[in-house]
Each structure stands twice: as structure tokens, then as C-alpha cells.
Amino acid sequence: MADTVEIVAESKQEGKLGGKRPKSVRVVLLALMIAMMLAMLDNMIVGTAMPTIVGELGGLEHLSWVVTGYTLATAASTPVWGKLGDMYGRKGAFLSSIVLFLIGSALSGMAQNMGELIGFRAVQGLGAGGLMVGVMAIIGDLIPPRERGKYTGMMAGVMALAMIGGPLVGGTITDNWGWRWSFYINLPLGVVALALVGAVLHLPKKRARARIDYWGVLLLTVGITAIVLVTTWGGTQYAWTSARIMELIGIGVAALIGFVFWQTRAVEPVVPLHMFRSRNFTLMSVIGFITGFVMFGATLYLPLYQQSVQGASATNSGLLLLPMLGAMLVTSTVAGRVTTKSGRYKIFPIAGGALMIAGLYLLSLMDTGTTRFTSGLYMAVLGLGMGCMMQITMLVAQNSVEMKDMGVASSSTTLFRTLGSSFGVAIMGALFNDRVKHVMAERAGALGKGVTEKSAQLDAKSLAKLPAVAREAYQHAVSAGTHSAFLLGAGVAVITLAAALFVKEVPLKSGNPPAESVGDVAPVQVAETV
Q1: What CATH number did the domain enclosing 365 receive?
Q2: What is the pTM of this model?
Q3: ∠256-262-264 over CA atoms, to 5°?
């Protein structure tokens, strides 16, 4: 109680809205950013280490499951973590997710074969599902919506740092310490986050009378798993029209329909459907899905174009994404500051939708003669659009629900973005691969068809071994593939702009609801209430 009084007094001295935050809140925010970094950095680092991992453990045929197992577990557990935080307390759920993530990281580092690694990565993914949700929900508890925009730049900065630094860090760790440290590196960072959150964050514990909605969890998990497997396997391991893919689509649709029906009957539903009565929450879910679709598709195929057509190295292709990520960081920061100062936000999703369409269309114009400077300008336009979207969607979604639903609102928005990324990678990938194979066969005949028979995406070593004719044909094919993929992205982004036009600009609250929902680390509104 003494801590509460001290922080309330400190809040009074440091002024009204927009004033300086208590040191304890700033320390908690630092810990949250570390946890967010863990969730985003992991896949980037591990992706770089995968060739070395396969070389030591074998099991090349199961390679994709190292990523798929992690993604499935993360997507399926995300809404569950959000609901657990709402029912039993945000702090306990968040700390549990960190501990589970660290256990999975330690076990993954000790894996002796590919089967163990896949299983331990799934454990790691279960923890990761609670990291992003916990960060967003705790910030939603501590920072009033009107002020929350100031911290969006911080989150965008962490995201940009993970995307740029992940491959560099992964390569350095693998080359100097061995691939196992790609997982062990999470441990010291996680311990720091645990210590800071445990010592400084004091949110109230909750004791919900209702039981966990186990049927809802099961149906949602089956539905999400089927969707992710369809987007992962479709067009690669299985043809889109194959019996296996059709079965998965049927299972996924049936499970999700059953889930929606059950949520209308459950005492404490995993995803309360009443949230979707809010027009803004529904629109933010749509916008989040499309943003994930576009963003992850772009970050996957831009480096491939830069390496295959523009001759960039694997390391440099990551650095060449800086125009997009830098523009995203700047715009996200400016959007957050303007939102905090004015309380207005509708202009940002509208501007973001228009810029995303323009950026994706410009990227679709790239060919074998496009310079790095020109492609950098096109990427910057896309980055400006995504920067307008990234955190504003979460802010508006959280502002559209009651405090008791903050966790599930955060997890639902995160889940839609995750599913969007799965669909984006799958659909843009299918279009890209089909176009590359077609152009290769057209330009290089039987030789071109043989080159891309197994995969339309060649690494640098395979590309260097090709005859000059086939290599030139492949560069034209990749240009054609990226043209089709980004043109599709531009078409899909139109949905974002249309949704943004229907957003109702509800004033952002200057404070959170009752002080008891915040606890010892009190935001400014606690001082005002007292």
C-alpha cells in the first residue's frame, strides 16, 4: 500500500496528461519491450541457424515443422493467454508465459534430434503466444488510451530492430558459438524481463468463479491448426485441390462454426462475441488481418528479389529493408504522438491504407533493371503505410472494449494479424511460385523447368551454379513473380482502405476505468481519481 501512495504522489507532482511517467512504470515498460523482443526475434534468429541445425541433427524432410510447430502453438495459445489474463490476473499469466517460453528455449537448445527440436519448439511457441498478448494487455492496463499512442514508436522500434538484427545476430551466434546458442540467448534476456516485471509490476490478482471454457479452447485450437496447416502445406507439400487440403479445410470450417456456436452458450467464452458488436473492433480485426497479410508477404519476397535480381548478399538483403522499416518506425512514432496530443486517429488508417496500396503497386513495377535506390523509395512508401497501421489498430481495438475484456481484445487482434500473415505468405507464395515456374519454362525451356521443378526459390549457392542463360531467365522469372505477388497485395490492401473509411472516431479515454483495476503501478488517472 505504501508503494501505491508513493507512486500516486509522484504522479501528482509530475503533472497531468502527457507528463513524465513514474520511474516504476518506465521500468515495467522496459521489461515489456524485452519480452516483446524475445517473441519477435526468435524466429528471425532460428531461421538463419536452420542450415547448420539440419547439418548436425539431420531430418531435412521435417525441417518445415521446426517453424510450423512453433507457429501453430503460438497461434492456438494466443486467445487462451488473453482470456487467462482477464480471468485470473494479467501479471501471473504474463510471467507464466515467459517461464514457459524460456523452458522451451532451454529444451530446444538441448535437442538431440529433429523430433525433439520440433516438440520443444512447440513448447516455446505456447509461451510465445502469451508474450505479445501480455505486453499489449498490460500496457492497456497501465497507460490510458489517450496517452498510449506515445509508446507505439517504442513498439515499432522493437519490431524493426528484430527484423533487421535477427538475421545478423543469428548468423553471428551460429558462426561463433554454435546453433544451440540461438536458443540459449533467450535465457538471460528472459530472466531480466522476469526479474523486472516480478519486482516492479503489482497488478491485482483475480479469482474468477467461472471455469475455463475447455470446449471453446479445443474447438478454436482445432480450427486455427487446420487453417495454419492449409496455408503452410497448400501448394508446397500438397496440391491445393488434394484430398488432404480439402480435409483440413473441412475440419477447419466445421471447428470454427462449432466454436462460434459454442461461444454463444459458454458461461465464460474464450472470445466473447459481444466485442464484435463494436463496429470499430470488427474493423480493426479486418485491418489487422490485411496488415499481417501484406507485411509478412513483403518481408519474405523483397529479400528474395534483392538477392536473385539485384545481387545482394543474404546479410545485405536484410539491411536493404531499412527504407521500409525506418519509414514504418518514423510514421508509427509520429502517429502515436499526434494521437496522444489530439485524441484523433481516423486519418491514420485511411492514410495508411492509401499508402499501402501505392507502395505495393510501385513494388509490383520492379523488374530486372530496377536500381536499389528506386526499390528503396518504393519500400519507404509501403513502410509509411504500415507505420500508420501497426499500433493504431491495437489502440482503437482496446479503446472499443471494456477493461474486463482487455486481454481477449488484445489477443484477438494479435491472432487476426497472425492468421493474416499465414494467409499472406501462402497465397502470395503460391502465386509467386506458379509465375516463376511458368516464366522459367517459357524462357529456358526444359532446362528452366528442371531448375524449378523442386522449388521456385533458389538460394545463392544454387543460383551461382546455374548456366548464364538459366540464371538470366531466373532473374526475369523472379521479377515476374514479385510483380504478381505485390499486385495481389495492392488489391487486397484496398479492403484496408475501405474498412478505414467506416471507422467511427470515438474519443480516446484520458484515463482507464477504476483505480483498482490497475494496481500499485498506477497511471496518471489513479492520481486524478484519488
Answers
A1: 1.20.1250.20
A2: 0.76
A3: 115
